[in-house]
Design goal:
Shape: globular
Number of strands: 5
Strand content: 5-15%
Structural class: alpha/beta
Helix content: 40-55%
Order of helices and strands: HEHEHHEHEHEHHHHHH
Distance between the termini: 46 Å
Low-confidence stretches: none
Oligomer: single chain
Length: 260
C-alpha cells in the first residue's frame, strides 16, 4: 500500500519502521516483504529483466555518509574507484536505481543511526538525501528504535513524522505459533520426515525458544542439518534436544524449568 501511495507523490514520501527486540524476526520480515514485492513486479513485468525492484542494505555502525553510499554501491555491484568521493558515489547510485526503476528500499540495522552524535546526524542527512532523490518507498528495521536515539532531535522527529511503526516481539503460545511451525516444516526437504511432527511439538518448541522466531529457525535448521549428516532424514524430539541454540533462549528455558 505504501508503494502505491508513494507513486507520483509530490511531497514527502511515507515509510515504515519495524522495531523490536533481537531475534524477533525483523530482518526476516522485511526480506520476505521485499521478496513478495519483487515476485509481484517480475510477474507483472516479465520482460523487465533490467529492473531492480528491491534494494537491501544495512546501516553501517558508526558509519559515515560515504560508507552508507558504498553499501548501496556494493549491492548494485558498481565498479567504483577507491578515491571516489561521497557525492560521486551517491550520484552514481541514484542514477542506477532510477534507471532500474527501484521502488522499495530496505534499510536494516537502523538502530546504528544515533541522532545524538555528529556522525549519526551526518549519516541521517545522507540517508534523507537518498529518500528525496529516489522515487522509492523506504522500509527500516532495527532494535528498540523508540529508545536508541533514532527519534531524537529535529532529524529524528522528522523521521518519526514520515514513518509508521510496527513492533515485533515473541510469539505467544497460540494458533499463530503452530501455523508458523507448520510453515517452517513445509520448507524441509527431509526424505523420512513425517509431516505434522513439528506442529505436534509446538509447546516444547515454544518452551525451548521463548517464542522467538530467530531461535526457532536456528533450532529447526540445526536439527535438519544433523538429520541430513546423520542419515536419519527426519527431525525427532531427541534430535531437537541435541541442538544448542542462542544463550538467551537456553537461559530462559533453564529458568522456566527451575520454576516448575
Amino acid at each position: 500500500m505504501l508503494v502505491l501511495m508513494n507513486q507520483r507523490e509530490i511531497g514527502a514520501r511515507r515509510g515504515l519502521i519495524v522495531s523490536g527486540d533481537a531475534a524477533t524476526g525483523k530482518t526476516t520480515s522485511i526480506k520476505q516483504l521485499g521478496r513478495l514485492h519483487e515476485l509481484r513486479v517480475r510477474a507483472r513485468f516479465p520482460a523487465g529483466r533490467d529492473r531492480i525492484p528491491v534494494v537491501y542494505v544495512t546501516c553501517p555502525p558508526k558509519g559515515s555518509p560515504r560508507k552508507l553510499a558504498m553499501e548501496f554501491a556494493r549491492f548494485l555491484g558498481l565498479p567504483l574507484r577507491t578515491r571516489a568521493n561521497v557525492t560521486d558515489i551517491a550520484d552514481a547510485v541514484c542514477q542506477v536505481l532510477i534507471d532500474a526503476r527501484a521502488d522499495l528500499v530496505l534499510v536494516d540495522e537502523i538502530h546504528n543511526l544515533n541522532h545524538g552524535t555528529p556522525a549519526g546526524e551526518d549519516l541521517s542527512d545522507h540517508l534523507k538525501y537518498f529518500t528525496e532523490h529516489l522515487p522509492a518507498t523506504f522500509i527500516y528495521a532495527g532494535i528498540d528504535i523508540e529508545r536508541c536515539g533514532v527519534f531524537t532531535g529535529t532529524r529524528g522527529r522528522q523521521l518519526a513524522g514520515r514513518c509508521g511503526l510496527i513492533t515485533t516481539g515473541a510469539f505467544p503460545y497460540r494458533d499463530e505459533w503452530a501455523q508458523l511451525i507448520a510453515a517452517l516444516e513445509a520448507t524441509l526437504r527431509l526424505h523420512r520426515h513425517e509431516p505434522g511432527t513439528l506442529p505436534g511439538q509446538a509447546k516444547y518448541l515454544h518452551q525451548r525458544t521463548g517464542g522467538m522466531i530467530g531461535s526457532l529457525t536456528h533450532l529447526i535448521r540445526g536439527a535438519a542439518i544433523r538429520a541430513i549428516l546423520g542419515g536419519t532424514e527426519a527431525i525427532t524430539r531427541p534430535l531437537l534436544d541435541s541442538v544448542h541454540i542462542d544463550h538467551a533462549a537456553e537461559s530462559a528455558t533453564r529458568r522456566s524449568s527451575s520454576t516448575r
